[in-house]
Amino acid sequence: MTDGVAAHGIEKSFGSRRVLAGADLVVPEGTMTAVLGPSGCGKTTLLRIIAGFTDPDAGTVRIAGQLVAGGPSPVPVHRRRVGLMPQEGALFPHLSVGGNVAFGMPRGERVEHWLDVVGLEGLADARPHEISGGQQQRVALARALAAQPRVLLLDEPFAALDTGLRTRVREDIATILRDTATTSILVTHDQTEALSLADSVALLIDGSVAQHGSPAELYQRPATLAAARFVGATIEVAGTADAGVVRTALGPLPAVLPVADGPAIVVLRPQQLRLRPEGVPAQVTACRFYGPDTAVDLVLADGTAVRMRTPGQVDVTPGDSVTIEVDGQVLAYPSPSGRQGVALGEAGG
């Protein structure tokens, strides 16, 4: 690959703690990849290695085809042409908005152009403390883009914003990055953020990339049980797989991916469970209305507990007897214990 970013076999330890264990990441030019994973999985360390702030113990990094890490002469930070958007924007408080954007900008560029790109026309003379948090993030983006980076790294850039503002700002910034065809890597632990913004998502678990694909692929066809648990809410039910069908307390369920015969864990998304006139008997144990949907806790005849989510309000109360069925094919994985067991409730977010 001659363009974009290619990191291969990245290893990094701090003392006896191994943070990255052979991580691979390829980001095509002009696209956004989200690096998603739990806290402490190595996301920020991988970003710092790409930027040049940290050297890998092993592996290579290429940016636009240039070997910048892992070769005989690592390329220093200031020569990599890598932009960074950290949390909270990190603007210089003593400089105006225009002064912040101009910092590091090549000759011939115009501050007004980049403020126009990020939708902040007329604010060049304002001070950072005089504008909102969302506007500060846009200034940080304009400053990063004005330096004409070969790749832009975004390290949890929306974490400091309140929920309503965060959604609007991150969608606006993602649109700007696409419009400017900026190669970018977004580090986040927020699965909604990763799935909704990025062209592709790399799931980093225990120091290596467990799966890298489109947001839909990662959500609909997670390669492992750990991946399924992290990307989206899950309902887990024990069963026995035989020729691609898993026998469970919810009946025989066809698996969407190949699964070895024997004890298995079936993974459903909460919206796959439906109330139906004919189906598997269950008893309602709790019901919570969230506005757009309702969460209903149920217990099956064999004691298996599950939670379903149904659009709008549902006319059931604790103690009611209902019948449910599963809509569509299911995810299924070999049981981690090698024997049948029951995974209760709803995981993920």
TrEMBL record:
Gene3D superfamilies associated with the record: P-loop containing nucleotide triphosphate hydrolases
SUPFAM superfamilies named among the record's database cross-references: MOP-like (SSF50331), P-loop containing nucleoside triphosphate hydrolases (SSF52540)
EC number: 7.6.2.9
Coiled coil: none
Keyword entries, A-Z: ATP-binding, Nucleotide-binding, Transport
Gene Ontology CC annotations of this record: ATP-binding cassette (ABC) transporter complex
Domain ABC transporter residues, every copy: 5-231
Top-level taxon: Bacteria
An MF annotation (GO) of this entry: ATP hydrolysis activity
InterPro entries per the UniProt record, alphabetical: AAA+_ATPase (IPR003593), ABC_SmlMolc_Importer (IPR050093), ABC_transporter-like_ATP-bd (IPR003439), ABC_transporter-like_CS (IPR017871), Mo/tungstate-bd_C_term_dom (IPR008995), P-loop_NTPase (IPR027417), Transp-assoc_OB_typ2 (IPR013611)
Protein name: ABC-type quaternary amine transporter
